[in-house]
Amino acid sequence: MTISPNSQPLISLRGVHKSFGAFEVLRGIDMDIRKGEVVAIIGPSGSGKSTILRTINGLTPVNKGTIKVGDITVSDPELDQVKLRHRVGMVFQQYNLFPHKTVLENVAMAPIQVLKQPRREVEDRAQKLLADMRLPDKANSYPGELSGGQQQRVAIARALCMEPEVILFDEVTAALDPEMVKEVLSAVRKVAEDGMTCILVTHEMGFAREAADHVYFTDKGVIVEHAPPAEFFSQASDPRTAEFLSKVL
Ligand code: ADP
Ligand code: MG
């Protein structure tokens, strides 16, 4: 993706702090993400990666700092949740599909029920997205009839069906058997290549290196450093990053 360095960020975080009780999970997070950019967040378990994503989509209210997505101030207590849901999609490690609804119903449900869009139009879009996710013949199946990799691709189609401006992917391959990791990473790559702004929390270093425009490294609630992947993986300078990379590469 070619990104104009001067364009306004689509997403910005400034001085974001979050505590759970006495425990400060985020200790001043700053990020700028431009439209069409693919950002990977990596770091040790418990460093606050999921919490960062959850603050961006409004699931976790912050204690201090500001978060903006386009013209929406997510950190505003008066936040319009429906508008935000429309703009920010999220895909989780556990796909959380409704087991008693078909694949098509799972994908089409939120735009119909939450955004009140016409069923026909949404279902046509859902069918196209299932084809993009290489699941053209699974519309009438139930989640339990699909493999983990297929269910995760349904979850990605469901996020896309809301036509968001950004999709947050939280370790979407972590629960999958190795042979399914590749097909889900290909699906994520397609979403990115089609121009979607993506923030990926991932332990797949090879994927971060290839697919991301920018890599952020978190440790204990702070961003230790960030750089384009070629630079990040070859000359990360902080000892915390070096230590992490020595364990995972
Ligand atoms: P990561 O995704 O990098 O593994 P998380 O953002 O999930 O890290 O969590 C960071 C820290 O915050 C962890 O120590 C976790 O136990 C704690 N934490 C996350 N969510 C909550 C919560 N709802 N209540 C209390 N502690 C939480
Ligand atoms: Mg996490």
UniProtKB/TrEMBL annotation:
Cell wall biogenesis/degradation recorded as keyword: no
GO MF, one annotated term: ATP binding
Top-level lineage group: Bacteria
InterPro entries named in the record: AAA+_ATPase (IPR003593), ABC_ATPase_HisP-typ (IPR030679), ABC_transporter-like_ATP-bd (IPR003439), ABC_transporter-like_CS (IPR017871), MetN_ABC_transporter-like (IPR050086), P-loop_NTPase (IPR027417)
Key words of the record: ATP-binding, Nucleotide-binding, Plasmid, Transport
Domain ABC transporter: from-to ranges: 11-245
Name used for this protein in its record: Peptide ABC transporter ATP-binding protein
Keyword Metal-binding: no
Entry similarity comment: Belongs to the ABC transporter superfamily.
